[in-house]
Design a protein that fits this description.
The complex is a heterodimer.
Chain A: H1 9-36
Chain B: H1 6-27, H2 41-68, H3 71-103, H4 111-132, H5 136-151, H6 153-163, E1 173-174, E2 177-178, H7 182-217
Antiparallel strand pairs in B: 1-2
Helix pairs in contact in B: 1-7, 2-3, 2-5, 2-7, 3-4, 3-7, 4-5, 4-6
Classes of the chains: A mainly alpha, B mainly alpha.
């Protein structure tokens, strides 16, 4: 036991991937709604 | 059609975020105790802080509408509210992913987590209110009042780690300076600026949609009477 967290890359990638899914998904929804409102 | 600067702003924002995330993932040093898991900071913290700023802006836009009754304030409030809710939900999700390897749980009824969830849900309520009120003037007034009430949650959420015993760490950046090592601080600042760009882009694009919908709701002009 060193008190330091070992590994955890699955969580790291999951966090960044979740962020990008939200950012790209929301950008896509804005693009679609923008076309609909035209 | 998007205004001239909207597409370039979007491209630059996404590029900045991609570069910032790459640095956070592969260039940043490991944190002293969390080691590599500490890299989640560069994704989670910018979303959380910018999201809270957006919720504060909702209160400001709502106040602007109540004092001027100008439609632009209402559209800005609608735009910021939706973007803030998206970022609030993302904060809760990335926080849960951060919590599992560091605290051992996805979720706990900790003051910071609970207040952040209440804050986000209160703005979901503002959006729901906007969805059920058909009259544009009433919708704008009622949701402005609700938006101001909801924005009271922002300082409560921000200060929750100081006011109550919390599993969540207290603020690392305060009025006396930053407790973050300079080798990590610049990367966090870079990612925060990148996410701020993304947020401004989102609000601008959503504002344009809100304005167009508001224009469509305007009553038809009365026909001219021949004299």
């Amino acid at each position: 036991m060193t008190g330091v967290i070992d590994g955890g890359w699955d969580y790291i990638y999951a966090c960044y991937l979740t962020s990008w899914v939200f950012v790209v998904g929301y950008a896509g929804s804005l693009w679609i709604r923008s076309r609909e409102e035209r | 059609m998007p205004v001239d600067w909207e597409v370039p702003l979007g491209v630059v924002s996404l590029l900045l975020l991609a570069v910032g995330n790459y640095i956070g993932l592969f260039v940043a040093p490991g944190e002293k105790f969390m080691a590599d898991v500490g890299r989640i900071i560069y994704s989670h913290v910018p979303v959380a802080i910018i999201g809270m700023l957006v919720f504060l802006a909702v209160g400001g836009f709502a106040f602007g509408y109540l004092t001027t009754s100008k439609r632009g304030w209402d559209s800005a409030m609608e735009a910021a509210c939706e973007v803030g809710v998206m970022e609030g939900i993302l904060t809760l999700l990335t926080g849960a992913i951060f919590g599992r390897p560091t605290w051992g749980v996805w979720w706990t009824w900790d003051p910071r987590l609970t207040s952040a969830a209440v804050m986000t849900m209160s703005f979901v309520g503002v959006l729901m209110l906007r969805g059920i009120v058909r009259d544009p003037d009433r919708r704008a007034t009622w949701s402005a009042v609700a938006g101001i009430l909801a924005s009271v949650n922002v300082p409560v959420t921000y200060m929750s780690v100081n006011w109550w015993a919390s599993l969540h760490q207290p603020q690392s950046i305060g009025t006396t300076g930053s407790m973050i090592d300079p080798s990590m601080q610049w990367i966090l600042t870079f990612n925060m600026l990148a996410f701020l760009f993304v947020t401004v882009w989102f609000i601008a694009a959503r504002y344009r949609i809100a304005e167009r919908r508001a224009e469509a709701e305007m009553p038809e002009p009365l026909p001219e009477v021949a004299t």
